[in-house]
Amino acid sequence: MAKRNSRDAYEAVFGALAHAARRRVLLAIFFNGGAMTAGEIAAMFAHAWQTTTRHLQVLEAAGLLSHERQGRMRVYRIEQKRLTLVSDWLAHFQNAAKRRKGGIQNVRSKQAGRGEAA
């Protein structure tokens, strides 16, 4: 079951990040100290309030944002732990590129040591 939950988490996170407006929301919150009210977020974008609310709901459902109520306001915060899911997944490709590059260099040095053309 843990594997299914992990797959669901990846689908939710990457699905949320697939939309450019949601990526801009995350960037806006990040560059404003990691927390913003819903009204501050909505004021930064030209789309309707309902659209902003929907984007915030998707980001929250994916675990990328959380909110707390402060009086009548909702303050949204970035969930760094959930973002590590993305960086950890991307690290597979960064590490693979390093391994591949090292592997090519190792093959070439072995071929050079045997007098073969690379």
Strand order of the largest sheet: 1-3-2
Coarse morphology: elongated
Record field, number of beta strands: 3
Assembly classification: single chain
Text of the CATH class: Mainly Alpha
Number of helices: 5
Low-confidence stretches: none
Features:
118 residues; alpha+beta; elongated
Report on this structure:
The termini are far apart. A three-stranded antiparallel sheet has the order 1-3-2. By secondary structure, the protein is of the alpha+beta class. The chain is built from five helices and three strands. Strand 2 (65-70) and strand 3 form a beta hairpin. It has a single domain, classed as Winged helix-like DNA-binding domain superfamily/Winged helix DNA-binding domain (Arc Repressor Mutant, subunit A, Orthogonal Bundle). The chain is 69% helix and 13% strand. The relative contact order is 0.12. It has helices at 2-17, 20-31, 38-43, 49-61, 80-113, and strands at 35-37, 65-70, 73-78. The model has no long low-confidence stretch (mean pLDDT 83).
